[in-house]
Amino acid sequence: PLSDVTRFCCSSCCGFSYSSNFPILSIPSGLTHESHKKDVEQVYLRCSEGSVKWMYPTGALIVNLRPNTLSASYKHLTVCIKPFKDSSGANIYLEKTGELKLLVRDGDRSPNKVYCFGYDQGGLFIEATPQQDISRKITGFQYELINKGTASDLHTVSAPCRPCSDTEVLLAVCTSDFVVRGSIQDVTNEAEQQESVIDISANKLYRQKSKVFQPTEENGSWRGQIKTPLECGVRPGDGDFLFTGRMQFGEARLGCAPRFKDFQRMYKEAKDKGLNPCEIGPD
């Protein structure tokens, strides 16, 4: 059965399909299909997010992302993949019109590294590397398709440490997965993971799509954690901030985070000019 060889899991229900030169409806593994090491299989995924697990990889696998969206909107999509911690046995390339660009090298153990590229830059070509014992090899990764047309997505994916402009902040308030007013209680730097974990106490919750912030017994406040790259150098500080960001592979990632008094200023200025992209109470 297919589940014995390769698993394709989608968190949004939409299905998948695949093509093969073989009559059997499965993607052959090296343990069951040793004589076809040079075969190239194709998989079509129609989910906006999910995961791929290729067990005992031999030959090559082409992963075609075909989300259930209008083809005209493809150019606004960014694809991000996050290899499993124990993924091994294959190199992952970005492929377009026959040209390959190495994305993830077999054996790369960069913790929590996320690789992103524009949907129009090509698809994924996964090629098994020669192995003495393939029975111990499993190649896998999570993937997400995000809309690169929003300020919060652009900031989080392409330049997470760059200060946001006023326009980007106002758009992030409208489009982020979470928007809270609060203060930094603590910052834990995880050198091995190359990340900082920001512990936040929030006194105003404007929006959250996931339960990042949980209510406490302290005067109706909320507590939660947000991650950001270690290189951003986030430190604890006094005063309130407006924290925005998005969920990426089940984790809250920091987007734009201006001081709250600066947000109040830019919000009022935009409102006076009738340029606010959405309404949100600044107080």
TrEMBL record:
Ranges in coiled-coil conformation: none
InterPro entries (UniProt xref): Meteorin-like
Keywords carried by this UniProt record: Disulfide bond, Hormone, Secreted, Signal
Recorded superkingdom: Eukaryota
Subcellular location(s) per record: Secreted
PANTHER family the record matches: METEORIN-LIKE PROTEIN (PTHR28593:SF1)
Entry's family note: Belongs to the meteorin family.
Protein name: Meteorin-like protein
